[in-house]
Amino acid sequence: MAEGRQRIIHKYLRTTKLFPSIWCPGCGIGIFLGAFLRAIDKSGYTKDEIVLVSGIGCTGRIPTYVDFNTLHTTHGRALIFATGIKLVKPELKVIVVMGDGDAVAIGGNHFIHAARRNVEITCIVINNSIYGMTGGQLAPTTPLGLETTTSPHGNLEPSFDICRLAEAAGSVFVARSAVYHVGHMERLVGKALKKKGFSLLEIISQCPVHYGRRAGMGSAVEMMKWQMENAITEEKARKLSEEELRDKIRIGVLVDKETPTYQERLDTLQESLKEKAGAL
Amino acid sequence: MTNAELLSGNEACVKGALAAGCTFFAGYPITPSSEIAHMMAYELPRRGGIFIQMEDEIASLGAVIGASLAGAKSVTATSGPGFSLMQEHIGFASIAEVPCVVISVMRGGPSTGVPTHPSQGDVMQARWGTHGDRPAVVLAPSSVAECFGLTIEAFNLAERYRTPVIVLTDEMIAHMREKVFLPSSDEIKLVERLKPAEPPEWFVPYRDPGTGVPPMPAFGEGYRYHVTGLCHDERGYPTTRADEVEPFVRRLFRKISQDFDKLQWSETYYTEDSTLNVVAFGSVARAALRAVRDARSKGMKVGLLKLLILFPFVRRKVTQLMESSTTILVPEINMGQISREVKRVNQGKCRIETLNKVAHEPMTPHEILEKIEEIYG
Question: In three state form, how does the secondary structure of chain A look?
Answer without folding.
Answer: CHHHHHHHHHHHECCCCCCCCCCCCCCCHHHHHHHHHHHHHHHCCCHHHEEEEECCCCHHHHHHHECCEEEECCCCCHHHHHHHHHHHCCCCEEEEEEEHHHHHHHCHHHHHHHHHHCCCCEEEEEECCCECCCCCECCCCCCCCCCECCECCCCCCCCCCHHHHHHHHCCCEEEEEECCCHHHHHHHHHHHHHCCCCEEEEEECCCHHHHHHHHCCCCHHHHHHHHHHHEEEHHHHCCCCHHHHCCCEEEEEEEECCCCCHHHHHHHHHHHHHHHHHHC
